[in-house]
Amino acid sequence: MKTGEWRKWLAAGTGVGIEIRGDRLEAMLVRVRPWGVQVAGMLSIERFRERPAADWGAEYASFLREHGASHLAAVVLLPRHELTVRYVSLPGVSSKDLPAAVEFQLDELHPYGEEEALHGWARTLDGTGVLIGIARAELIHRYAAWFAEAGIRVAAFTFSAAVLHAATRLLTQPPEGGFLALEEGPAGLEAYGESAARPVFSAVFDLAPERAAALVQAELRLNEEGAVRRLWELLPAPAAVPEGVELGGRALLYATAMAAACPWLAVKANLLPEHQRASSSRAVYIPTLALAVLLVGALAALVAYGRIEDRRYLAALEQEIARWTPQAAEVRELEAKLEELRARRQEIYQFRLRSRADLDALLELTRLLEPPTWLASLQLSRTAVQLAGETTRGPELLRLLDRSPLFGASQFTTPMTRVAGGESFAIRAEREALVLERTP
């Protein structure tokens, strides 16, 4: 089974994603299953920067309680223009040495000068490289303080490239040969792409979509028509959406919620300091785990029962085979004897036909070679006849023999010579097969 198929059958969970969109917070709750994604609900909090954190935190808590998801810790998607995203290829670096290798690269990737910065990184799902997100420490601490004051439990601060890289591979697979996806956001046009030349590309543009697409396609070395897509085309379509919920323009929020629902299948690039990370309560999974154990036990019992029945059937089958083997051997022996008798009968019949065929050949030669032709010798075999004698009819003998249904391909074996009574000749002709191959 391919890797993508294994990932699909492991995709099961419930998660909540939060996207910071300017002065608005948007939250989405999804339930992911191998057969589809269900959007359970969505919440939009306006002017959250101006309002007391306790107020909009209470709205969020009510939203979770309404859907029975108070145990979940959220994954927060940071605005793309507020952080720097880099892809670093580190071929041949083991998992043990990877943290040191990433730290070594950060000095060159750090874009904020003397300001303190925080970063989060993780391997891409194909293991070819590392995705790194870098943001000002002051920004991360400010967001963390807001969410803590609001009473919102946060598991991760992440970025769009990480959630898109995971969500596009959760239940589906991204297009082969590379692609570019564009999405209009609060701070401009966000671009995400993948290709053989650039395994992961992420940027924000303040340009017209056509101009931005041309620049990114050149960067990704994409020339195929249809390589430019919308983000929604790369994500699995939701199987169910509550009435009144509008998903347009919220592809990033949808991808973030999917990554939150299946953290073991996501790219764990987390900029939130480790001591501030919350985790979802595990107690809610106890009934599911118990049912899963029972299901595995039932499947194991079913498999074992099937094997036991197979062994019983095989033993009964072998017993019947042993019972009927002597009779089958006798039948085969009788069939062999019968075939031998048929062959002998055919030989006898063919032998009887030979005499008849020889007599027919002699009668035909008597009819064809009328006086004044006479024979001095005649040799008759199964396939040919050889004649020698004298005649006055010369070459006409060959035509007579070839016209006969019993002879053909006649020819003189020696040149004709003149004698007292005419000419001497020696002819060889092939006999046509008149002996039947089968008994009537």
CATH topology of the largest domain: Nucleotidyltransferase, domain 5
Overall CATH architecture of the largest domain = 2-Layer Sandwich
Straight-line distance between termini:
62 Å
Shape: elongated
CATH class of the largest domain, please? Answer: Alpha Beta
Q: Looking across the biggest beta sheet, what order are the strands in?
A: 3-2-1-4-8
Count of alpha/pi helices: 10
Number of domains: 3
Radius of gyration: 46 Å
Contiguous runs where pLDDT drops below 50 for at least 5 residues:
434-440
The largest β sheet comes out as:
5 strands, mixed
Strand content: 25-35%
DSSP helix fraction: 25-40%
Order of helices and strands: HEEEHEEHEEHEHEEEHEHHHEEHEE
Mean pLDDT, all residues? 85
Overview features:
alpha+beta, Gyrase A, domain 2, 3 domains, Nucleotidyltransferase, domain 5, disordered C terminus, 440 residues, 5-stranded mixed beta sheet
Structure description:
39% of the residues lie in helices and 27% in strands. It has 440 residues and is of the alpha+beta class. The chain starts with a helix and ends in a 9-residue tail after the last strand. The chain has helices at residues 3-10, 53-66, 98-109, 137-149, 160-167, 209-220, 231-234, 251-261, 286-368, 396-403, and strands at residues 13-21, 24-33, 36-45, 74-77, 84-88, 117-123, 130-136, 154-158, 179-185, 188-194, 201-205, 228-230, 374-380, 384-391, 407-419, 422-431. The strands form 4 sheets. A 5-stranded mixed beta sheet has the order 3-2-1-4-8, sandwiched between helices. A 4-stranded mixed beta sheet has the order 11-10-9-12, with helices on both faces. Strands 13-14-16-15 form a 4-stranded antiparallel beta sheet, covered by helices on one side. It is built from 10 helices and 16 strands. It folds into 3 domains: 3-172 and 235-281, Nucleotidyltransferase, domain 5 (2-Layer Sandwich), CATH 3.30.420.380; 176-234; 308-431, 2-Layer Sandwich (Gyrase A, domain 2). The radius of gyration is 46 Å and the shape is elongated.
